[in-house]
Amino acid sequence: MKKIKIDVHTSSFSPGQKAYLHSIKMQKLLIIWCRFLIFAGFLTIWQLAADFGWIDDFYFSSPIAIGTLFLHDITTMSLLNHIRITLIESSLSFLLIILCSLLVATLFWFYPVLGKMFEPFLIVLNSLPKSALAPLIIVWLGTGPRTIILCGMSVGLFGCILNLYQTFQQTDPERLKLIETLGGTRIQAFTKVVFPGNTPAFISVAKVNIGLALVGVIIGEFLAGRQGLGYLIIYGSQTFKLDLVILSIVILCIIAMGLYWGLNILEKKIVEKMG
After folding, report:
1. pTM of the full predicted structure?
2. Which residues contact 166 (CB under 8 A, 6 or more apart)?
């Protein structure tokens, strides 16, 4: 059956409805401008504080100094290579977290006894400080990209499994009972009810873990990397190149925002398709 789209023009709205829609639009614009002004004001105050000596620009640098360093390193392509390495490692860690978590949570849903057996262990592993696991991973696997990716996975994997498993368990039992009454199998119940019904929750879990994967990769690069933004932060702090440290942190913030916005766009498209 085809879905019929109804095109509603604002001309059919009452004056009160038009005023409400206009106020919503203006509120969104106001929020965007306020964000821009806050960011611009922060950069201005930071630069003025460095220029007038209110802060020590050796330790705190300045926006102009960081921008100059960025342009210099971009032209030499060295910075782009470090950014590329961190993006690849973070993306692989994130994808492996989601894939492994989905497989394990699905297995636990199909075999609830396994879920009850392993849930306490997952809770304990999830409560461990993840930075404490990184040195062990380095001892076991040595240095290199494989170790860094595993460090990225260790930060979010156990929590992601628990969240997905609990989400699957909270599926409406009446809908599952209806599938069973109609003669459906457990596989059909999962593919037709459990997973589609929990897609928004699945995306929310993914949005949390994209940041955790990035954090884990940076921890791995701190300890075992010879490339990447985490390595640049450690290298800059050891050689007192604090401009490089702050530049790397700024780039990490931009990467985190970009990945989060990307998942937001994906979420909207999935919700529109489901609707």
Report:
1. 0.81
2. none
Where exactly are the structural domains of the chain?
10-54, 67-274
Measured CA to CA, the distance from residue 199 to residue 205 in angstroms comes to: 10
Token pair belonging to 115: 């879920």
Give yes or no for a contact between 232 and 244, defined as CB atoms under 8 angstroms apart.
yes
Q: Does pLDDT of 95 surpass 90?
A: yes
What value does the CA radius of gyration of the chain take, rounded to a whole number of Å? 24
Averaged confidence pLDDT in the chain: 85
Report pLDDT digits (tens) over 206-233: 888 888 899 999 999 988 888 899 999 9
CB neighbour list of residue 207: distance below 8 Å, 6 or more residues apart: 260, 263, 264, 267
**Mean pLDDT computed over 189-211:** 85
For the domain made up of 67-274, give the CATH fold.
MetI-like fold (1.10.3720)
Burial of 217 by CB count in 10 Å (0-12 exposed, 13-18 middle, 19+ buried)? buried
Q: Measure the CA–CA gap between 274 and 143, rounded to whole angstroms.
A: 44
